[in-house]
């Protein structure tokens, strides 16, 4: 991103500190048929026009009168749609004795004016608050001749610039910057369905992976946000996709400005602001609330919590559209019921006219879902890149009609005796020598790394330029907080990497970016990457297993859909490599239809309990009659024969449980239910009933006997509950005994307060069995698992690096990092729980420790750790060498900072001396960023202090 000059009054471009995010940065194989090189896309350059005031004297007088102030985005409360319509007319609006200032024509040739009152201090305050004055409005007229041709293609109905789609030109330009200028015929046909563009009808549609499903939803959401000034929520299943989607929408909409509602008739100034696009997921700390945001990109759980809060605040009328990406997640055993619950609440808000858009590549009963969601449905089989699919076993390649396509000659090498391994190596090599990318889906993390190390031996040689690019990736990996992984150090120079949850976020991002640029040619990955990361390839090689089990038809389809990259490949290829003894079950998976989506509320009553609790807490269903209406809006009601007969006893049992747990109470005289304080706290913090009850018991016990002599007790309290209720955490009892023995007296007391007995730990370390055969034993196991996880977190808070903690507990680095991220999110939601319960002191304490965990430092380094790259060990090294504050760092120099960064490196690279020199240049760049950021933070601190 370019560093634009500041638009704040009284601030020169030289005094602006750029946003830190802007700165960061074998023989015998069957070769594939010759393929022409992919066409080079010619991207037209866009003309940028800057609006300037034509009265510099007056502008200077304003600038000189207003002191510098922190740039903030508008967060005034949004008005209703009917109140906003008057804001869309061009011009300054209103007369009075104000002074008229001309604004230069915008890029579409329009001139706008605004009225300025010399005596109106309110305008000055608003300019200082929003950081800019009124920009030119968007025009529906034709663009000037200098506008690139792509934006003049208004006669082609498949062009995004066509008036039928109602997209402002800034939006069309934003899509073009992302390489999207035209839509496919199926997308135009889908958008042209009755009532869709006007927002009067809901829609469910299916299309294959890479067919462009998201564009339809993006257009509908953007129209709601930009044209109608409503809010949009985009619901996605995984954090990585949330982050990717947030970046995409920010890029598309970065040039769009929308009107800021006026405060009253006396307000004569037209003010505009950029759209606020915020990502919400576990571990994120969004500093923007519901009133200020325009687009919320959320995980399922965060979207549900956001909707609950909006209903509770009576601001749900500001919501215009909700997009459900990957709608097949309704069938997920662990999270599907939350997605169903979220959609049910939207259906109960029919009078608010919230448009629902759902999409997936793997739904078979789309008509049933459309009936449930009161939606139109559209099914598409279009795929922009043709796909060639193969089945490989016993060194033979067959198509799905079981016709022999080719033979793979067996190898005499020992490591290639296995036909599956031989097939993988041969197919990878055949694609790489043609300069194509390959994804190899493996059944486990260990297999990913083993295959990656094996492929290194057979990769073709490359020239010095390519090798240097790969060594740059190695150096980048070495400068991450966890240092250079030994396996990646061996594989990346050969153009091979692996990608799974055991890697840290920084490592995965670097690998994905290098693969996208073509520097890395092969990625060995686990099945979850098929749904979590958008990295297509020319050739996809698939293992039919995921762990010990065979792939589901849905997951297999997701993997196969990754083959073929639009704009880079003429076709895609996938190869399912299996053993002959597995042929029958593999064919069964291949021929199996996509499963019908079923409700997850019909099994155990956990989901039903939560559905009823949230319906009562949000006052969508507070009586017996309204509860029945509420349940009629669920998917289970539409997919169950005689639903009322089936659901009634389950509903009664769930209601009794909620009353017994003191989550709801019943007013028998008036005949309605209402949530108790515990119930409201549970819903507000996004927990299920069982989690809310458990957390209440834990925190209540903590408030009675809270131990603040050490951080052991508080760390336990913000250890996520779900980490202790799943089988993902296996306690190493011998290791736990060692760690408990290391605790000081205050740590032992904290362990006793939460219910951990050192004698029981010792018994388990000697071969005891932790039984979970009763509610009491289940609760006991939960406490011990949670305490075990809290021991890891305590080390992170005490500045132990992630890779050291991972090695100590024999757990993948990525798990430790993800645990840290999850804890930050859990601390936030636990804080919300405490605030609703009235435990404000505990909420503040949780917030403090959440920040410490985020920065990986003790309390004395909190200020220093605000500087990017100065976290954990690095922050301590800075402190011990005299740089104890942001001011001290800002007064330092590049050379001194590089020496300290070298001391903080986790492990030294075993590279040539010349490459070590290049490594130092990397550290010099980082030192420059640290120094500039420290100066900016220190100056901002000084300004804030002066204002106070």
UniProtKB/TrEMBL annotation:
Any coiled-coil regions, as ranges: none
InterPro entries this protein is in? Answer: DEAD/DEAH_box_helicase_dom, DUF7898, Hel308_SKI2-like, Helicase_ATP-bd, Helicase_C-like, HTH_61, P-loop_NTPase, POLQ-like_helical
Molecular function terms from GO: 3'-5' DNA helicase activity; ATP binding; hydrolase activity; nucleic acid binding
Major localization listed first in the record, in broad terms: nucleus
Q: Which residues form the Helicase ATP-binding domain?
A: 194-381
Reactions accelerated catalytically: ATP + H2O = ADP + phosphate + H(+)
One BP term from GO: DNA repair
> What Pfam families does this protein map onto?
DEAD, DUF7898, Helicase_C, HTH_61, POLQ_helical
Q: Identify the CDD domains for this entry.
A: DEXHc_POLQ-like, SF2_C_Ski2
Q: Where is this region: Disordered?
A: 1-103
The Helicase C-terminal domain sits at: 424-631
Q: Where is the composition biased (Pro residues)?
A: 29-40
Provide GO CC annotations from the record: nucleus
Protein's cellular compartments: Nucleus
- Protein name (record): P-loop containing nucleoside triphosphate hydrolase protein
Q: Which organism is it from?
A: Choiromyces venosus 120613-1
């Amino acid at each position: 991103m370019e560093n634009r000059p500041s638009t704040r009054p009284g601030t020169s471009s030289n005094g602006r500190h750029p946003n830190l995010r802007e700165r960061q940065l074998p023989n015998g194989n069957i070769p594939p048929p010759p393929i022409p090189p992919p066409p080079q896309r010619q991207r037209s350059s866009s003309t940028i026009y800057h609006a300037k005031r034509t009265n510099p004297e007056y502008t200077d007088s304003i600038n000189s009168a207003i002191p510098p102030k922190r740039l903030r985005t508008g967060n005034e409360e949004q008005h209703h749609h009917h109140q906003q319509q008057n804001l869309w007319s061009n011009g300054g609006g209103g007369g009075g004795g104000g002074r008229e200032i001309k604004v230069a024509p915008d890029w579409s040739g329009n001139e706008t004016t605004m009225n300025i009152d010399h005596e109106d201090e309110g305008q000055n305050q608003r300019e200082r608050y929003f950081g800019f004055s009124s920009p030119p409005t968007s025009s529906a007229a034709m663009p000037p001749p200098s506008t690139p041709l792509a934006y003049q293609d208004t006669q082609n109905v498949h062009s995004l610039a066509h008036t039928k789609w109602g997209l402002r030109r800034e939006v069309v330009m934003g899509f073009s910057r992302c390489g999207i200028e035209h839509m496919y015929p199926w997308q135009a046909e889908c958008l042209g369905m009755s009532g869709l563009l006007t927002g009067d009808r809901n829609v469910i549609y299916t299309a294959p992976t890479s067919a462009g499903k998201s564009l339809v939803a993006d257009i509908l959401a953007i129209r709601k946000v930009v044209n109608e000034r409503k809010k949009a929520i985009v619901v996605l299943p995984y954090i990585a996709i949330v982050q990717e989607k947030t970046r995409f929408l920010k890029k598309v909409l970065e040039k769009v400005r929308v009107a800021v509602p006026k405060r009253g008739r006396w307000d004569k100034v037209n003010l505009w602001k950029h759209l606020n696009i915020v990502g919400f997921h576990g571990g994120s700390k969004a500093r923007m609330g519901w009133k200020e945001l325009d687009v919320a990109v959320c995980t399922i759980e965060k979207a549900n919590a956001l909707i609950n809060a909006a209903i509770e605040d009576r601001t749900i009328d500001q919501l215009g559209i909700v997009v459900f990406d990957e709608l097949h997640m309704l069938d997920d055993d662990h999270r599907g019921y939350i997605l169903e619950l979220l959609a049910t609440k939207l259906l109960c808000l029919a009078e608010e006219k919230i448009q629902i858009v759902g999409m997936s590549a793997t739904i078979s009963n789309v008509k049933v879902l459309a009936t449930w969601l009161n939606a139109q449905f559209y099914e598409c089989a279009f795929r922009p890149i043709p796909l060639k699919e193969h089945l490989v076993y016993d060194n033979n390649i067959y198509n799905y009609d079981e016709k022999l396509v080719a033979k793979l000659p067996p190898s005499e090498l020992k490591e290639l005796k296995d036909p599956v391994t031989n097939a993988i190596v041969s197919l990878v090599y055949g694609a790489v020598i043609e300069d194509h990318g390959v994804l190899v889906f493996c059944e486990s993390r260990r297999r990913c790394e083993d295959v990656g190390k094996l492929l290194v031996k057979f990769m073709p040689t490359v020239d010095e330029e390519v090798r240097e690019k790969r060594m740059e990736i190695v150096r980048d990996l070495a400068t991450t907080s966890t240092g250079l992984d030994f396996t990646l150090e061996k594989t990346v120079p050969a153009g091979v990497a692996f990608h799974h949850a055991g890697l840290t976020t920084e490592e995965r991002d670097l690998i994905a970016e290098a693969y996208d640029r073509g520097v890395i040619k092969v990625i060995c990955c686990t099945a979850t990457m098929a749904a979590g990361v958008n990295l297509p390839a020319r050739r996809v090689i698939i293992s039919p297993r995921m762990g010990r089990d065979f792939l589901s038809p849905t997951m297999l389809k997701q993997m196969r859909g990754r083959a073929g990259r639009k704009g880079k490949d003429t076709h895609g290829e996938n190869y399912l490599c299996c053993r002959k003894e597995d042929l029958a079950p593999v064919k069964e998976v291949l021929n199996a239809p996509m499963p019908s989506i079923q409700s997850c509320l019909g099994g155990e009553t956990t989901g039903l309990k939560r559905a009823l609790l949230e319906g009562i807490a949000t006052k969508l269903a507070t009586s017996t009659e309204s509860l029945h209406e509420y349940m009629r809006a669920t998917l289970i009601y539409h997919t169950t024969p005689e639903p009322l007969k089936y659901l009634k006893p389950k509903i009664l049992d769930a209601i009794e449980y909620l009353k017994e747990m003191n989550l709801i109470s019943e007013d028998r005289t008036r005949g309605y239910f209402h949530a108790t304080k515990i119930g409201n706290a549970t819903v507000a913090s996004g927990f299920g009933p069982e989690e809310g009850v458990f957390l209440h018991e834990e925190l209540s016990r903590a408030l009675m006997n809270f131990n603040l002599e050490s951080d052991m007790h508080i760390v336990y309290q913000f250890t996520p509950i779900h980490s202790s209720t799943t089988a993902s955490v296996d306690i190493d009892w011998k290791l736990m005994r060692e760690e408990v023995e290391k605790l000081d007296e205050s740590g032992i007391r904290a362990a006793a307060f939460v219910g951990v007995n050192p004698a029981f730990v010792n018994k388990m370390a000697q071969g005891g069995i932790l039984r979970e055969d009763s509610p009491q034993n289940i609760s006991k196991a939960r406490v011990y698992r949670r305490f075990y996880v809290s021991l890891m977190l305590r080390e992170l808070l005490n500045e132990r690096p992630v890779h050291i903690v991972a090695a100590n507990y024999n757990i993948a680095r990525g798990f430790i990092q993800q645990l840290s991220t999850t804890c930050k999110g859990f601390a936030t939601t636990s804080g919300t729980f405490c605030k609703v319960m009235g435990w404000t002191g505990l909420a503040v304490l949780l917030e403090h420790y959440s920040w410490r965990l985020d920065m990986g430092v003790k309390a004395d380094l909190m200020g220093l750790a605000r500087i990017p790259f100065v976290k954990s060990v690095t922050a301590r090294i800075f402190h011990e060498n005299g740089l104890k504050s942001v001011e001290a760092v800002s007064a330092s120099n590049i050379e001194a900072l590089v020496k300290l960064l070298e001391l903080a490196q986790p492990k030294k690279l075993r590279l040539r001396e010349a490459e070590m020199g290049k490594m130092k240049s990397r550290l010099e760049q980082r030192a420059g960023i640290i120094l500039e950021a420290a100066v900016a933070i220190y100056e901002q601190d000084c300004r804030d202090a002066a204002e106070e």
